[in-house]
């Protein structure tokens, strides 16, 4: 029987979600498809070869590319029709690979294995939800529950959840969507091989000792055991197992320069990025290098990236940063004021050992109603609702508004609280923040509307020419060589992809579909808002101009990045995987 609790039911949901992310990312990057009528149903028709098409009837059309499918998948060869499963259809698409030259057999099989792995993790996440809550409705109430509710993950990616290399017991411990939690492993490291760098204003030099002191007996034991001549270094236990055999590390262990001294009791929770850990008891979150491939990159941190965290902290303490914060009091940045790492025998920092330290604004008591944006926009597994829809329901009841008006009201607040500060950071201050759905945390007020923005992930921050001119006299670490001082066109492409295509288009689609409004009125609302910001007058209107006046926007090609097996983090030119898509904000202006 295929009941909502059966293995088959959950498996089908996971496969369908996997296919939706796969197809939607393909459609953004490949032009050979159309929407047409097939057997009286509206369907996406993808050209795979002359006279060969994949046919996917739609349950929801989307101007923004967030199509939803009915679950019927057909391969049409001439007049012959073949019904396929979701996985068979993806296999066929990869065999034809109409976007480029055919894939080598081995590459196709590897890719398919990655897709199956991703689907399996979605299945496990749904099963976990079913077992712990008795149903599949994601109803997070606080920060950590939101972080751990992303069962589907990146909605434009061919293998959004793939996490190869972890055994089942490791998946259960370290995966946010499986409600993972685990203890930190504490090392002591000889100061001669430890790097410790902080921002100018960071003065909490005893934070590790304080952390241990608040851990009760397990912390005290470590404090008693430690050699005061050594420095403390808490470690992600899996990462430590993964790297402790590396030549430099192993020799330090043999020479007694690194020693394992024990675990602390209180659990740490992996957040939605997997590599950043949260503990409501502690003042800081801990972001680690993790030698595992997630979406487009092996999740190693690099020195030039964690330097950006210190830099952002300095920028926010500068007059320019303070002015931005005072003009947009609803906005904040989760600063990363310190990092630690081990040096190799040449004195260079070993990327695999980096720990970046991030302020935690969501400690116990202040963690309620704070959600990563991706948790709000993610569809429930039955595609009948979402966390965002439940908020709009509440808003519509408490304010006696129709669902449609409540959705527009919510979006107006989203524009004020999330979009405006991030766009104005670029336009008036030259500060660029890579604010995609996973890097935006929103605090929701008791009536259900956005109240506060927390931007996280300083690795994805940069500066335009305006920012460089304003900040470089005081922030000496702003360095053209570090790779985050960008030409205007580059910065505008990245900011627009993250904040608009990735984040805001997902909000528009979710509100439009779930509240019966459609996407267009909300795209219009966004367009009007951008026009108003530009009319107000800004220092550098180039990003607003690009968003309003450019017929196309550049979109990050997650499909091609995965198929070609690029590691996004080590690409020489990050824009190499970006491709043009029609700009819906511009199109509405032309239609008038
Ligand atoms: N809509 C989305 N856009 C981008 N990434 C997403 C999205 N939804 C889920 N994710 C997941 O979130 C992670 C985003 O990676 P990113 O590099 O922004 O974060 P990070 O640097 O690893 O950590 P943190 O955000 O904690 O600083 C990836 O693992 C990706 O799969
Ligand atoms: Mg992130």
TrEMBL record:
<comment type="similarity">
    <text>Belongs to the IucA/IucC family.</text>
</comment>
<feature type="domain" description="Aerobactin siderophore biosynthesis IucA/IucC-like C-terminal">
    <location>
        <begin position="408"/>
        <end position="568"/>
    </location>
</feature>
<dbReference type="InterPro" id="IPR037455">
    <property type="entry name" value="LucA/IucC-like"/>
</dbReference>
<dbReference type="GO" id="GO:0019290">
    <property type="term" value="P:siderophore biosynthetic process"/>
</dbReference>
<protein>
    <submittedName>
        <fullName>N2-citryl-N6-acetyl-N6-hydroxylysine synthase</fullName>
    </submittedName>
</protein>
<dbReference type="InterPro" id="IPR022770">
    <property type="entry name" value="IucA/IucC-like_C"/>
</dbReference>
<dbReference type="InterPro" id="IPR007310">
    <property type="entry name" value="Aerobactin_biosyn_IucA/IucC_N"/>
</dbReference>
<dbReference type="Pfam" id="PF06276">
    <property type="entry name" value="FhuF"/>
</dbReference>
<dbReference type="GO" id="GO:0016881">
    <property type="term" value="F:acid-amino acid ligase activity"/>
</dbReference>
<feature type="domain" description="Aerobactin siderophore biosynthesis IucA/IucC N-terminal">
    <location>
        <begin position="143"/>
        <end position="378"/>
    </location>
</feature>
<dbReference type="Pfam" id="PF04183">
    <property type="entry name" value="IucA_IucC"/>
</dbReference>
